[in-house]
Amino acid sequence: MQYKQFLLDQFQIDAIAAIEDGKSVVVSAPTGAGKTLIAEYLIEKFLKEDKRIIYTAPIKALSNQKYRDFKGAWGQKVGILTGDVAINERAPVLIMTTEIFRNMLMNDLEALEGVMYVIFDEIHYINDIERGVIWEESIIFAPPEMRFLALSATIPNAASLGGWISHIKKQEVQVISYHQRPVPLRQYVYDDKNGLFPLVEFKKTLSRQQQPQKRGGYHPFPFSFYRDLIKKLQQDRLLPALFFIFSREATYNFGWEAYRSFSFSTPEEREKIGRIFDTVIGDPELLQVDSIRRMKKLVLEGIGVHNAGLLPILKEAVEVLFTEKLLKLLFVTETFALGVNMPAKTVVFHSLEKYDGLSFRYLMSREFFQMGGRAGRRGIDEFGVNISIIPQNLDTGEFQRITDEQLEPLESQFKLSYNTILNLIKKHSEDEIIHIINMSFHQFQSNYERIRTEEQVGKIRGSLKNHGENLFHDCRDWGNIRKYLKSKEQVDYLRKYLWEIERQVQKIRIKRLKRKKLSERDWAAAHFDQQMTHHTKLSCTSCPHLQDCLGSYKKIRQDLRDLSYFEKQLKNISQIDQVEIFHKKRKLLSELGYLSLGKITARGETGSLVYGYELIITELLYEAVFEISPEPLINMLLGAILFERPKKGELPKFRHQDPETRRTIQRARKIAHRIRSMEQSFLGEKTSPIINNEIMPLIEMWCAGRDFSELTSSFPMEEGDIIRLFRAIIDLLRQLVRVTREYEALRNKFKRCIDLMDRDIVSLSYYLKEEKPVKPEPQPAV
């Protein structure tokens, strides 16, 4: 079977057949295997039938990329809806982040009328600790007539995911798992002694070690360690190469070190790179920004850097150049592995450890193979190359775990937000709510695990009963067996002890020490004779059925150990009771006035329309904090709620000069503190954010019309992080515009807040908009 001039693999044919049969489909296949082709077939099929399709992605960058790709294929039939941009919202093919889809299911179901299929790209994000619940809720709350196409890199429990969807949606789900890579992968390790070494051979040396080595801490290699490796990759035609480095700062450092040592571009390529780079950046003023000028120097030599701290438009320029095969060396963080289809000939892991926000940890096997899957370009390379750097302090046990392809299964991260609870109470009875909560993937996995464990317990108990009925011929005496084994253990110990003393006596030349050892030998010999006499008198010693009894006894002991293990597992299954959490949070919402006599109040209605930070935002609204605050201060307060303090380094403390502004900030902080105190009392934990006023000067400068370069030169944050924060503020303001649609004065104030934030490079970096926003007049500082 062919589609778009491609000869389809069997897993693609099977998926298309299931779509033709009207089934939901879960596809698990390696990176680059061609999962997107299935999605394109589905879109084309239903466009011909005048039906609608939703395409969801976990991050805005991936949504934006798919919008560009799909618009090129289907033109005005494609739209996009994210927190940043809304274009052609009623298009038959609508691309959005998964959060937007979930929110529409909650409060704008009419906008999804006529949608036949929802495509969940990167469905393994259901495993994400912070955001995985969004995917679960999207499936749970979807109308029963909707079908799903769930796409993911290889996951071991795809059948469990498909079984859950089938169970809760009462529809047939086809699970398709495909394990063959389209481009074979050759795996190597690299160290400063042996150079490149096949992974298989290296693991053989590990298996011969008697004791696994343990790591001694995190010590990554400097760039100088890699010069010979890069030269070899260049000589063996193994470029382009992605270097995965789990530090933004290190990606920059490595990029400049490579710039000083290598140049991969011909004069013709250098000219083409410059032309493409300038075209993507677009605005001549942006080309003068320091970070953009520096990156241009790198890419002209065929070297690039890509991480979440870059300006979005700069990441786009790097991605375009890499796609055009003009970059030969790209230093990236793990965000590059997500979704964006940009494979290389070679992938190099600078380390197998990363900082997760709390401490350094080794990669999960799933992370390793997700990133390593970027090696090998379909239709270009005969094979891809994966290279793992081996430090001297390698934990060999962890290395075996990471590279053995025993991928960790997806696990539910379901948790009830206040927004979800309010929307459930609005629309359902308590019995229905309990039923919905029990539809979670978490509950499905717990039920499956409980049934499997109960089966194991039953099997072991049956085995024990069978052993009990057929054990110990006529005597059936556990006590005799125990006495025999204890006595035999003592005899064996004394025999070994005697042999050791005899060996020592032969070596000793000093008479005094020799007499002491001979005395010990006499004592041990006497005890040995005494124990042997006792042992031979035991009834089991001469019993003809002894070996049978010992075999049965050994099986019973193992069964008892297994039974203890599985019974403990049974107690630990589903320790998190989401129904109990629902009752606790409902009680807290009642205390705050969001519910009255079990019904939602006006305050609760507002909270049900705010997605994320719902309690503090609603309280600030109802306490009139936004109403009395000027626009810049509103933006500062929202930024202080959204901002997370950096894990490393300190920000300067901030205390505003204006007394009235200080009082308003203090009032907001008291509201946040009150909510967190109530959460501690009702839930035993604090989940709502605090007001991080350290970020306020940055937002105040921007609202006052200051240039972006002034922000980056005076505040210790990366450009991409600043823009991401500003876009999050704009997204939250747009929610507030919708929430206050019946309060014109406040609604217009929030619109003015958006105008202050949504300007210059903050808007230009999201260039999918059909028109660039007009720059507003600068506002005075608060």
Strand tally is: 21
Distance between the termini: 65 Å
Shape assignment: globular
> In angstroms, what is the radius of gyration?
33 Å
Description:
- Residues 765-782 have low confidence and may be disordered.
- The strands form five sheets. This protein has an eight-stranded mixed sheet, with helices on both faces. The chain has a seven-stranded mixed sheet with strand order 12-11-19-16-13-15-14, sandwiched between helices. It has a two-stranded antiparallel ribbon with strand order 1-2.
- The chain contains 31 helices and 21 strands.
- With 782 residues, the protein is of the alpha/beta class.
- A hairpin with a 2-residue loop joins strand 1 (2-3) and strand 2 (6-7).
- The longest helix has 30 residues, at 478-507.
- 53% of the residues lie in helices and 11% in strands.
- Helix 17 (441-469) runs antiparallel to helix 20 (546-572).
- The chain starts with a strand and ends in an 18-residue tail after the last helix.
Q: Brief overview, please?
A:
By secondary structure, the protein is an alpha/beta fold.
Keywords for this entry:
7-stranded mixed sheet, 31 helices, 8-stranded mixed sheet, 782 residues, alpha/beta
Task: Give me the secondary-structure topology.
Elements: E1 2-3, E2 6-7, H1 10-20, E3 24-28, H2 35-48, E4 52-57, H3 60-74, E5 78-81, E6 86-87, E7 93-97, H4 98-107, E8 115-120, H5 132-141, E9 147-152, H6 158-169, E10 173-177, E11 185-191, E12 195-198, H7 199-207, H8 227-235, E13 241-244, H9 248-261, H10 267-281, H11 290-300, E14 303-306, H12 312-323, E15 329-332, E16 346-349, E17 353-355, E18 360-362, H13 365-372, E19 384-389, H14 396-403, H15 418-427, H16 430-437, H17 441-469, H18 478-507, H19 511-537, H20 546-572, H21 578-592, E20 595-596, E21 599-600, H22 602-607, H23 614-622, H24 625-628, H25 631-642, H26 659-683, H27 696-703, H28 708-714, H29 719-739, H30 744-757, H31 760-764
Helix pairs in contact: 1-2, 4-5, 10-12, 17-20, 18-19, 21-26, 23-26, 25-27, 25-29, 25-30, 29-30
